[in-house]
Write a structure and sequence with these properties.
By secondary structure, the chain is α/β, with parallel strands linked by helices. The chain is built from four helices and four strands.
Amino acid sequence: MRIDGQKARELVISGAQLLDVRSPFEVAEQSLPGAKNIPLNLLPKYHPLLDKGRPVIIYCRSGNRSASAAELLKSNGFNTVFDLGSMLNYFHC
């Protein structure tokens, strides 16, 4: 499910997990506070590090990788998955 920045911030305050699926190089340039970085190519192996009982908000640079990551998590039993798209959307409503 697509989500806007305002709703994403509200969910993070309520305990949602923030997942950055960009490369470590991209994350080193800028990231959102409290986000866990699991690059999309490693997500099939490392998604068990996420808590299935808490909502997950996924973002990337443009929205392509976050959409793929959302589908991957849903197919692995995550029920509450939100796609923020670009990390810049976090600051815009």
